[in-house]
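Example record used in the benchmark description.
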Amino acid sequence: MKPFSFHSPRGLGEAVDLLERHGPGAQVIAGGQTLLLAMKERLARPSALVSLAEVADLRGWRYTDSGALEIGAATTYAALAEAELTGVPLRGWHTEIAAVAGDLADRPVRTMGTIGGALCAADPRFDMVTLVVALDAELDTVGAGGGRTIRAAEFFDPVGGTVLRPGEILTTVRFRPQDGFSGVAFEKFRYRVFDAALVSAVCALRLGADGAVADARVTVGAVHPAPVLATTAADRLVGGTPTAVDTVEIGLVAADEVLPAEQATTSVRRYQRELIGVLVGRAIARSHERAHTTTAGS
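Model output (structure tokens):
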């Protein structure tokens, strides 16, 4: 392992200054679940590590005056999974975010791994990568040149990686208020409970006053270098109701859209194609159920 210096700033401004001072060889480290492994395998050889562990402003979550949910990038999966035990429990469909955080990898990884770290690693198999795109989250960053806000779908490069600039730090993940969606459901398949997803799927619905779907987002992850919005499948949901929607048919539409049969040339890719149809169908059914349960209870 190449020698490196380690820095533990107390504030965000200090972290930005350290990254600028140490130049291109400096890298941010949060939980270290991805970066440390890459360093051990000599896939990453930073000259300096800037830790965000002591930057308190990057941990935790809050609801804004508009009802949006803001999660600090250095918040661990374990902390978010136990949100209901805190003074700021998640509400409505936001609880699906906590459920996803509590159902990935194993306890040690959830304890150390952070939301922002997973997004910056940009591994398409990571659940949070798929989820933020599916829910149209906004990501705030800061660097020496100032801050900016990036939509999740634009944060991930279609060929892999992110659009983060050198020296830029992801600070906040912002999700829509409760009225942004009526029901959200995340589904995935993994070989073992602590494995990354082979395929993941999310359906997010917003119902109109008549109970029909007014807006829908269907997203598939772990199949390509970045999550894919299955817009054709989502459009098929708009205007429908639970009794009128054929979840199997729309799942097949999503499979054709995300991984056409002519591209499924290996056994793994053919299996992924089958999984897309099944998981999208399940996500649609469960999001419909949650949306109507929420509407009935409001």
